[in-house]
Amino acid sequence: MPYVNQSPLFLGLVILVALAEYIWRRRRKQTYDVNAVLATIGVAAGQIASRLAFASVIAYALLIAYGLSPLQLALDDWRTWAFGFFAVEFAYYWQHRCNHTVRWFWASHAVHHSPNQMVLPVALRLSWTAGVSGAWVFFLPLALIGFHPLVIGTLLIINLRYQFFLHTELVGRLGPLEWILNTPSHHRVHHGANPCYLDKNYGGVLIIFDRMFGTFAAERRDIEIVYGLTSPLRSHNPFVIAFHEWINLVCDLRASSNLPDIFGALFGRPRRSVFEKTEP
Predict the structure, then answer these.
(1) Rounded to the nearest 5°, which phi and psi values hold at 134?
(2) Is the pLDDT of residue 10 over 90?
(3) 266: CB partners within 8 A, 6+ apart
(4) Which of 178, 194, 196, 177 has its CA nearest to residue 186?
(5) What is the CA radius of gyration of the chain?
(6) Left if phi > 0, otherwise alpha if psi is -120 to 50, otherwise beta: which for 196?
(7) Confidence band for 268, pLDDT divided at 50, 70 and 90
(8) What is the pLDDT of residue 271?
């Protein structure tokens, strides 16, 4: 679930590498869904607006949590940043894992997994409702144990900028780096709708927590990755993309007749399609 902080330098780099990828795919006679990319740009515009609307609320919550911490780690100590890197990565892993396994969070995160191709602009297709779903609360414990919101925010931006470059088929496997780092190969698996790839590889910069907690899967040469949702979303309408899974959730709530069903619709595992049962 990557986030891109739009500095002019980074945006320029994003545009350059995205153009390079487009040229590479066209020369290899691979398809490139321009309409999907245009839809992603529309979704990204809405996400920027929603992020601005919730930014002050999230920052205020982190500052309150930091103020309650008995141990406020020094901003000018390199150990704060070194330990903070792993702490942010750990929190991100569990946030990302819950985004896939808890229906309430998935309603927002499904937006990012809706593209049916793996190209760099996919990184920009992000939810408009992440502030409402509350996945950001996974970072509150970091403030409570003494990390200043500036440390958390800076390291999270670095984490998510790194992930932009993972959304591509241009880069193959990277040898020994695959053991430690999240790589394009690992992230292609993460975006796969094939049953053997579902709910795998949640890491941001690192892949070590996936290996530790049993959610790692390597890219297989014998299976072509099917990207997107298990029930593919074909619409290029940004509003449909942004709210389709919330609509599914509301429909399930309306069909629920008792508390267990209501709880399951809200917080159970996301629904999967028949595709899951028929493909390897």
Answers:
(1) 85, 20
(2) no
(3) 103, 104, 249, 253
(4) 178
(5) 19
(6) alpha
(7) very high
(8) 79
The whole-model pTM stands at 0.92
Pick the closest to residue 192 from 224, 235, 170, 240 (CA basis): 224
Query: Number of folded domains in the chain?
Result: 1
Q: Check if the beta carbon of residue 265 is closer than 8 Å to that of residue 102.
A: no
Instruction: Burial-class residue 164 by CB neighbours within 10 Å (0-12, 13-18, 19+).
Output: buried
Residue with tokens 């595709």: 275
Whether residue 64 is contained in a domain is answered as: yes
pLDDT digits (tens, 9 = 90+) for 178-205: 999 999 999 999 999 999 999 999 999 9
Distance of alpha carbon 203 from alpha carbon 159, whole angstroms? 10
- Which residue type, as a one-letter code, is found at position 8? P
2 in any annotated domain: no
E strand or H helix that includes residue 75 = none
Burial class of residue 30 in the structure, from the number of CB atoms within 10 Å of its CB (0-12 exposed, 13-18 middle, 19+ buried): exposed
* Span 56-83, average pLDDT: 95
The two tokens of residue 153 are 């925010």
Range of 147's domain? 8-278
Tell me, yes or no, whether 60 lies in a domain. Answer: yes
Rounded CA gap, 210 and 213, in Å?
Answer: 5
Of 219, 213, 272, 270, the C-alpha closest to 246 is 270
204-250 confidence digits (pLDDT tens): 999 999 999 999 999 999 999 999 999 999 999 999 999 999 999 99
Is 13 among the domain residues?
yes
According to the model, what pLDDT value does residue 275 have?
44
